[in-house]
Amino acid sequence: MSIKVHEFKKVVTSTVIIGMILLFIAFNLFLVFDHHYIRNELTVLNKMVDELGYEINDEMLENFQDLYRDELKKMNEITNDKTSKTYGDVGTFFEEVRNDYDLYNVYTHKELDHMNQIMIMEIYLDFIKDMDHEYASFDLLEFAETEISLYGLQGSAAETARSNYEKLGDRLNQLLDNGEHKNMFFIGQIYGMHSLLFKDIFRVVSFEIMILVVLITAYIMNYEFENKTPLMVYSTRRGRNIIWDKLLVAMGSGVIATTLILGITLIAYFCLFSYKGLWTVPISNYFNWEDVFPLISWWDMSFIQYLICSIVLTYICGILFTMITFILSIFTKNSYISFFAFGILFGLILLIPDIMPRSNNLIFLSGFTPFHLVLNPQIWFTGRGIFTIFKYYEITIVGVWGLLLFIGGKLSAKRFIKEDIH
Amino acid sequence: MKIVLNEIKKIFELKMIAIMLLINFILYFLFTSFHINHFPNGRPELDHYNIHLEMLENYGRDMDEEEFAHFKEVYENEVERANQYLQEDELAREEGISTYEAFRSIGSDRLGSYIMFEERVDLFWELQARESLIDDYETTDLFIERLYEKSNEQQRQRIDEVVHEDRLSSIFPNLVFNNYTDYIGEVCLAIFLSIMFMLSPIYLRDGKNNMNDLQYTSKIGRNLFKKKALGAIIATFIIITLELGVYFLIYTKNNTGMFLNSKIISIFHKRIFWYNLTFIQYIVLTLVGIYVMGFVIALMVSLISSLAPNYIATIAIQIPLVFFTLVVFIPYLIKYIALVNLPKYSRGISYLGLVIVSLILMGIRWRREKLMDIA
Question: Are residues A356 and A402 in the same domain?
């Protein structure tokens, strides 16, 4: 037990690692607060959901329209008072105000703010109006063909891609039957909250964790060599087995670092942007359709479930990277070289799909790596890109790589334990 | 001198060179090669490139009013040919479109995508490119006006100067410039990462081997700090020169040699620079920037190496440095080194400041080193 404690002390007393964690957290906070300006507009949805619920059905829509009409009437009372004009909708009001500075000055800030809130309701209503049409006119198979020709896939690879998109099509139909899409959420096309959280923030966090985990593992794995103690430590049976203690401590430290970085970043994020009332909204809702492709999760997940799964996957990726560095360190015996070896491995793995034949299913296999996983956290558990569309993409990567790294780790450790001292 | 030579030998350890080459290899195939393999990048960029070559051949380095009139004439002739094509094309006849003008006004529909993307008729792509060039030339005043609106006093003075001296008529396409800056940006990253990777162990290696205690006891040993710094500078020079040599050899594949003597301020380029440079002068300027920045980075890395307690620390401290290099140094101080987006002398001052600061820091470190007790 106490060996582990001492190994752990090596990490904790390293000012650089602590400094890195703090630096990364500061950077993430900056990243989150950089988007603070959309905060006020987002709260309109929280209020609406509070009154109407998030599920979009006929009853809710009726209530929504009533609410909107009430608000519009109130607004028209104000405008009638001040300029003796009334408006059919808030859009025309703002168009007029925008072009006329005098008119703009007639209203107080508070009034304009309130009207802006009604405007947002109006936008939501407009979006809902288009919803069925948008899904009806969305052609998944056409998208598939464009992707296939974009990457120049042929033969069996193209067939695999087609069948994958067909499966996704089935899931899309199931999703539409369930009504998962008929739910309120922040408008993706305007605020892009899904991208902000799961693309920008999670990707940055994943990279930070990767860097930290590699540094920590390389540091304690090579500690003896760099401090000229290997002759002593590795001359006994217990000493040789210290690498397992080191691995466990590296994993533990990685988990702690992940908890700190991810925890503080997410707490800051959810303090800034209120998700009150939205935690249980299905993730595959219409409003998460941010660009040309709707968000289609492979399973019926709520936002909170999706978030938890993403967090778990981030932790697991960190552990996989620890194991990769563990194996690399056994061979390099130098923390500096280990770090760069990891970087080179990362680069080479990203290059492999480019040299794969386009007509063979192997090209998909080359995309099944944890490196590809951390590059695209926004597509986790969903179908979209041609190389990541597989239903069990994430689980397969974690399972297969976990197993391979476990075996690889065992074998390299076996080799290490029998190595001569020189 | 012999010590310096040995220090350089220590820097260029075989294992380190191999890893440096691998890093360059990966960066090249992940990022840099794109700017070589995809130049000009599709259409209409290819047409822009070809038309600029034609302009260069017909009109020389500049295009005056008369030559522009000729350019328009060529365009009119090509429109005639396009009309003929449309009259003969079956689909066009079916759609009832017989002139190029009518073809343009219908925008992108069945016929448009048929001619442009399925048949890939060169003539139509070329016409599109010519139109945009003519438009550029004819809307010079508007461009200047727009630019004026978002400029400050100093920038406006420069813009006035450029307009007054009639420098906008140079024939220089922005795709060549964009391609070069994008390429050199990636090259910079590769070079700077190589320098950081090769130099990080320079002091640390001795420190880790407990050599310092031994070295500090003799006068020559104390002076090793300076010799190592000199070795770092020389090694940096070698790394930069070799890498630039290779990367520029690759760059010649892009075939932009004919633009080397063209002035880069041009209405077709749509960027204003503080100086009236030709493309080759601009390239040389960026190279000078790379050398100076390389030396600054070498000094900073040496400093970090002499202070850091272990290898992990050097890497960790350099991660913000890499970030800063990527976000500030490369774009502002190298890629767009003479662009009017920053005040005229800001780059010179930044370079001077960086050099002075890194020299001072190393100087302070050296003075401490001189007086350091053996622990």
Answer: yes
A297 strand-pairing partners: A382
Q: Which amino acid is at B166?
A: D
Q: How many domains does chain A have?
A: 2
Nearest chain A Cα distance for residue B20, angstroms: 9
Question: How many contacts, defined by CB atoms under 8 Å, are there between A and B?
Answer: 57
Label each residue of chain B as H, E or C.
Answer: CHHHHHHHHHHCCHHHHHHHHHHHHHHHHHHHCHHHHCCCCCCCHHHHHHHHHHHHHHHCCECCHHHHHHHHHHHHHHHHHHHHHHHHCHHHHHHCCCCHHHHHHCCCCHHHHHHHHHCCCHHHHHHHHHHHHHHHHHCHHHHHHHHHHCCCHHHHHHHHHHHHCCCCCECCCHHHHHHHHHHHHHHHHHHHHHHHHHHCHHHHHHHHCCHHHHHHCCHHHHCHHHHHHHHHHHHHHHHHHHHHHHHHHHHHHHCCHHHCCCECCCCCCCCCECCCCEHHHHHHHHHHHHHHHHHHHHHHHHHHHHHCCCHHHHHHHHHHHHHHHHHHHHHHHHHCCCECCCCCCHHHHHHHHHHHHHHHHHHHHHHHHHHCCCC
What are B's interface residues with A at a Cβ cutoff of 8 A? Answer: 15, 19, 22-23, 26-27, 29-30, 197, 200-201, 208, 210, 308, 310-317, 319-320
- Whether A48 is covered by a domain: the verdict is no
Q: Which residue segment(s) compose the domain that A90 sits in?
A: 56-136
Structural domain contains residue A153: no
Which ipTM did the prediction report? 0.90
Contact B23 A19 (CB under 8 A): no
The mean of the pLDDT values for chain A is 91
Judge: B313–A218 Cβ closer than 8 Å, yes or no.
no
B312/A339 CB distance under 8 A:
yes
Mind listing the pLDDT tens digit for each residue in A375-401? 999 999 999 889 999 999 999 999 999
A101 with A20, same domain: the answer is no
Please tell me the distance in Å from A182's CA to the nearest CA on chain B: 34
Best of B189, B315, B321 to mutate (most A CBs within 10 Å, chain A): B315
Rounded to 5 degrees, what are φ and ψ at B7?
A: -60, -40
How would you write A243-274 as a 3-class SS string? HHHHHHHHHHHHHHHHHHHHHHHHHHHHHHCC
Q: What pTM does this model have?
A: 0.91
Shortest CA gap A351–chain B (Å): 7
Q: Is residue A291 part of a domain?
A: yes
Tens digit of each residue's pLDDT (9 = 90 or more) over A171-217? 999 999 988 999 999 999 999 999 999 999 999 999 999 999 999 99
